[in-house]
Amino acid sequence: MLKKIRIRLSLVCCFITELLVLAVVLCCLKISEKNMYGQEEAYFLLKAGNISHELHNETPISINWYMRNVSPEKNILYLEADSVPATLSQVVLTEPERRLAGEVQLYVQEKGITPVMDKFTSEMEYFRYEKEKSDYLVWYGTVSEPVTPVTWMYLYSLDPFCHRVNRQRLWFLAVWLMSVPLVYGFSCRFTSCVLKPVEQNQEQQKDFIAFASHELRSPLAVFKTGLSMLRKNHDMEKQERIFALMNSEMSRMEHLIQDLLCLVKVERAEMTFQFELVSLAELVETVYEKYKEAAEKKEIGFSCTFKEGQDYQCVCDCRRMEQVLVILVENALHYTPSGQKVSLYLYRQRGRYCIQVADTGKGIPDEEKEKIFDKFYQVSDSRSDKEHFGLGLSIAREICSSHGGKISVSDTKGGGSTFTVKLPVKR
User: Fold this and answer.
1) What percent of the chain has pLDDT over 90?
2) Given CB 3.0 to 4.6 Å as the disulfide criterion, which of 106, 223, 249, 391 pairs with 259?
3) CA distance 198 to 255
4) Is 5 helix (H, G, I), strand (E, B) or coil?
5) pLDDT at 304 (0 to 100)
């Protein structure tokens, strides 16, 4: 399912991105063509200006002068003296070129365009003439100063410009087409990164269902076996042992279900919190007194440390924060061997209250420090047992998050693990 979604999102992302790239390419192409056309216009005006200047200054019109102004760009310079085509125009120009000049003259007459009589300036008007696949910029002028008036027409061919434009368009098209696989690769990578949390969440759900099913299957199997044995066996002593075993498994299953419900409520923000001003010093001391005897039975040193007389008033849910501390202390006492110690610390640091539960047990590998807060995750088989399901730290993390705080784990100096709960001083 996710594979199909990834492919579809990649295609959509690629399509949208390519549209944006195409828009950018077209804008760049339009700007480039506009600049190129501006350069052509400037060159045309320069050439027409030179011709106008030389004609008005009575420059001798020779074959060399004529060829210099029309070669090699396939431009056309058509001259008339007293409305009669000049000899140079008849000699130099080919039949199609003379025919084209005649067509432009007819076009000029139809449009009522009069020849420019003054000397050339850049503000003077010129026009564009299109014929089939050819395109020209045309300047139409006259010189009346000599004895014989001369009318001249300069046709500047835009064919080379059009070829360059077409070639440039092909290059831009090639660049855009080459960007398609690159953009698709980027889209696949981007989509994978976006869907990665979804995939992780789906995997966690699968693990959640698998672990929950496994943990619930064990007590049910015990109940089924126990009931079968009770039917066949009437020995009171054995019945008592079976009842005790079933009661233990029932308590275990009840504990698991309560943890699951608590975790679901916190994640869905359905758990109610009663925030009030709580003395964290009293809360830490209460938890310490509650587990002091249990630590003595396991021959584990258990201590509680905080500065007397310092203000540890914090706005939080007392019952939920006690639940967090109970989870941390129970884990520490459970996984700490006899002869080691567990310590409770409370202090204030950089606008936060910090509660630490430090043990000198086996410790947690660095690569697994973040994973231990996942549902049903346990560090190793040696730390797995029937009393713990790997839900406690997940519940603790969600409760801390709901209080605007966070929980983290680090190594205890000398060996072991230290869990730190940080809560904001002001809420």
Assistant:
1) 20
2) 391
3) 29
4) helix
5) 92
CA distances from residue 411 to 284, 305, 359, 373 in whole angstroms, order as listed? 21, 19, 9, 16
Strands 313-316 and 417-424: unpaired
d(CA 147, CA 118) in angstroms, rounded, equals 16
What 330-335 contacts at long range (C-beta under 8 Å, 24+ apart), as own/partner pairs, is: 330/291, 330/392, 331/388, 331/392, 331/393, 332/357, 332/358, 332/359, 332/361, 332/417, 332/419, 333/291, 333/294, 333/295, 333/298, 333/300, 333/302, 334/387, 334/388, 335/359, 335/361, 335/362, 335/383
Question: Using 50, 70 and 90 to split pLDDT, how confident is the model at 408?
Answer: very high
Helix (H, G, I), strand (E, B) or coil at 42: helix
Average pLDDT, integer, range 398-423:
89
CA distance linking residue 4 with residue 14, whole number of Å: 15
Q: Are strands 150-157 and 276-279 parallel, antiparallel or unpaired?
A: unpaired
Element (H, E) at 137: strand 134-143
| Cβ contact 52:120 at 8 Å | yes
The DSSP bridge partners found for residue 341 are 301
**Taking residues 254-259, what's their average pLDDT?**
65
Burial group, residue 342, by CB count within 10 angstroms (0-12, 13-18, 19+): buried
Give, to the nearest 10 degrees, the angle between helix 392-402 and helix 318-335.
150
- The Cα angle at residue 238 between residues 232 and 241, in degrees rounded to 5: 125
Sign of CA dihedral 291, 296, 300, 304: positive
Residues 6+ apart with CB under 8 A from 171: none
Round to whole Å and give the CA distance between 185 and 187: 5
Contact (Cβ atoms closer than 8 angstroms) between residue 329 and residue 293: no
Contact between 394 and 263 (Cβ < 8 Å) = yes
- Is the overall model pTM greater than 0.85, yes or no? no
* Residue 188 exposed, middle or buried by CB count within 10 Å (0-12, 13-18, 19+): middle
Tell me if 353 sits within 8 A of 312, measured CB to CB: yes
Token representation of residue 231:
């039917």
Residue linked to tokens 């000599």: 146
